[in-house]
Every structure is written in structure tokens, then in C-alpha cells.
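Async update (no meeting this week)

Hi team, since we skipped the sync, here's where things stand on the single-chain job. The sequence we agreed to prioritize is pasted below, unchanged from the tracker. I ran it this morning and attached the output directly underneath so nobody has to dig for it. Comments welcome in thread, and please keep replies under the output.
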Amino acid sequence: MGRPRQYCGQACRQRAYEQRSATAKAGLSGDVVLVTRSELDGLQDRLYQLRCALEDVQTLLAERPTKAELERSLAELLHSTGRLDRLWVSERAG
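Output:
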């Protein structure tokens, strides 16, 4: 009843406050996301692999592939994406 909860509990509410406070003290806007260089490099590598796999599928489609060729190419595309759905940005503890 009433307004839905914004935070799952007091601890999450406290972490959100701490984050807002830290970004304000650093002079950053609230929508800024900070990642390490290695995290960014890893994401860019995965995106490049995905782009190449998509281009391979596009090239194959222009050549009228057999069903087996298409299945193999799509399997490679799926493999190249890895588990991109697990790349959600999450807050880190202090």
C-alpha cells in the first residue's frame, strides 16, 4: 500500500546516500559512472569481438549460406557475446 519502496533496506539507503555525498564532494554529477581502465578495456574488447562476429554473419548472409554455415556462424556470434547480460554496472563497497 502506498508508494513502492525505493531501497531494499536501511543499508542500501545508507550506501546510496554515501555515494551521492561522495560524488557531490568530488564535483561530479549524479549520473557519472566510474570504472577502472581494465574494466573499460575489457568491455571495449568484448564489443569489438561482437562487432566482428556481426560483420561475419552479415557477410555470410550476402553469400546465400547453407543451413549448416548459417548455424555455425550464428553459434560463433552467440559465443562471441559471452554473457554480456552479466556486465551490469554495480556499486562497489567502499
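Quick observations from my side:
Residues 37 and 54 are 26 Å apart (CA to CA).
The chain has a mean pLDDT of 83.
Reply here if anything looks off.
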